[in-house]
Description:
The protein is an all-alpha fold. Helices cover 47% and strands 0% of the residues.
Amino acid sequence: MCPFSQTTVPASDTPAAALPESIVHEERAQLDFSQSMSYGDYLQLDAILTAQKPLSPAHDEMLFIVQHQTSELWMKLMLHELRAA
């Protein structure tokens, strides 16, 4: 049982084909991604993971860059949510 819902969550070892058809339709779940773009393509991971360009040999600079880039992404999400409110 999901603590946030009154519905039962299927066991993780339950194959997708065994899920009740109604859940698939109600949740508009997409179960076949073979013809879709990959996770990495959807998230543009190549661009994100190559956006860190340290300017010095300092070991901690990568941490600084990643931390601040993620902070900027959180701020972008916050602005997106505020505009939608």
